Amino acid sequence: MVAKDIPMLITGLQSTEWQPAAVSLLALMQLSDHTGNQELIANAGGIDQILTAMTAHKANVHLQLRALGTLLNLCNTAEHQVLLLDAKGVDMILDTMKTHQGSVHVQQSACAILLKLASSTQPNVAETVSTTTVARAILDAMNTHTVVQHSNLNVFLGEDGGFRASMDTIFSQADAPRATRDLQRDASEALAYLSTGRDNIKAILINSRGVNVIVETMKAHRELAQVQLHAINALSNVASVGHRYAEAVSNAGGVEAIFAAMKAHMKHTQLQVMACAALRSLCTNDIGRLKVANAGGLDIVNAAVEANQGNPLLQQMLCELP
Length: 322
Hints:
The chain is mainly alpha-helical. It has helices spanning 6-12, 18-31, 35-43, 46-56, 61-74, 78-86, 89-99, 104-118, 123-129, 132-144, 167-174, 176-194, 199-207, 210-220, 225-239, 243-251, 254-264, 269-282, 286-294, 297-307, 312-320, and strands at residues 155-157, 163-165. It is 73% helix and 2% strand. Helix 14 runs parallel beside helix 17 (254-264), helix 15 (225-239) runs antiparallel to helix 17 (254-264) and helix 16 (243-251) packs parallel to helix 19 (286-294).
């Protein structure tokens, strides 16, 4: 398929049968990798038609994955993000996440789109998506897929009367570890953006055990620096509100998780600076101070300063810790 086929492919999305619509979506997903094609698809009403196909074939996970993949490519510009919001696309994405909660690939693709919206250069886009409903959906995805879920392969009856496995399912299962890691990375980063300066999101993170979910993610993916960085950012945002919020992070094991991340990624300067900022907020209450002291916090921060060649920000934060 080439760019001139885009109008025909968009028309194909109107099929009442899921297979033709899925074929069109696969071609659109591949074409939308190219910036010029993204513009052509959006200008031809592609976003509206993709959402219509998702609604019409709600139960088909393969179609939903291709639709989400195409929307993810299209959301590279603020203009297309606005089109998605105007078409109630976030509602459709959240509905798909709920319908296909067991699919790590659906959750990962959906969280990647929500991340693009939350980090949008268009303030209205980021503000519109910063809702407690979105935050809860992201937390649910993280909680459901903290580690790789190995489900049974779907099987179909073959012509010879035997069973054959769905190739789509086989490939999905093989790719599940990567999808799980990407989900946790994108979800953590999305929460970090959403919780920056927004009290409604911070309240959800402590009132819905969101900080517990974040800490469990940190434990399960300690080797992934980006997961640790964004998770610490989110915890820091929560802890900075005040004593009650900082205490909730400490009680969820936040101090221990932050120190574990610092030890695992000692030379990651950005992570170390973010961790120290979080610890500074956590030390505003007795529980946090005690946990930092018991974990040998000053020694760990000193080691981070040394590993990062006396970074001035780390030096400053070391002086500010009790």
